[in-house]
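Appendix B. Chain record.
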Amino acid sequence: MAQATAPPRPVSPQRDGDTKPPAPSRRSQGLAAHVFLAPWLIGMIALTLGPMLASLYLSFTDYGLFTSPKWVGLANYRYMLEDDRFLSSIGVTLQYVLVGAPLKLAAALAVALLLNRASRAVGLYRAAFYAPSLLGASVSVALVWRSLFATDGAADRGLSLFGLDVGGLTDNPDYALYPLITLTVWQFGAPMVIFLAGLKQIPSDLYEAAALDGAGKVRTFLSITLPMLTPVLFFNLVMEIIHSFQSFTSAFVISGGSGGPSDSTLLYSLYLYEQAFTNFHMGYASAMAWVLLAVVASVTYVVFRTSRKWVYYAQEDDS
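Structure tokens predicted for this chain:
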């Protein structure tokens, strides 16, 4: 007996509006991605990678900006070991970084702890403390700072009230670097905001458990707050170290572009600028720039390597 077969289903007529466009191929998607990335790629090659390679070549040449480069090999790098002002700029920069960066982070963390509480005026206080960072390392701020610490300035008159007659701090080689350090510490708003964000991420039940165990404020800070903030502290530390090595505007304006008395404020970047655009030793300045890049990269690498011993990530316990 023949098996009955089901009748074919009727096919509904296809309308013009029901047609779907074909899916784009991978080739067209890749082409569109490259078109959108083209401005960034052109900018990276023309404004970043190209100048970097050019400066690397110039660091091995005797180039006076208005003359043709002449290949001298490692002469610029060897001369650094004989340049007294170069060695002096390294010492001043290290002092500026080792003192200014920790003080700035300490001030940012202290203010963040004070502002990490519910209050009607806390928003106003946050904006007020963050405002100096919006000004950045501008020339106007540096000029104000120079007048504050100059002879007969506000700082000089204030110190004289306590019997400390040191003259203008910017004119005294023993104290000329302090105004630069106080200026960078004063602009702690950016790391403060990051610390505040980190404090908001700490679970409140940890503080409740510490309170039940009778832990005081200092013990709670050392055992809970600080360990939980180490990832944020690590990020701020790396950024501040890099920023401190690149500091230029404040030193240039406050010292008058000369490095201050007895080169006491001759930061590395300031001496690099002097060699490039005052003495027109562009080859030597290019070599200094690459040495600075190597130093910053090495310090950053050391911080990253040591972070394994002091940076705490909560997800590590779950693994």
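Further analysis of this model is presented in Appendix C.
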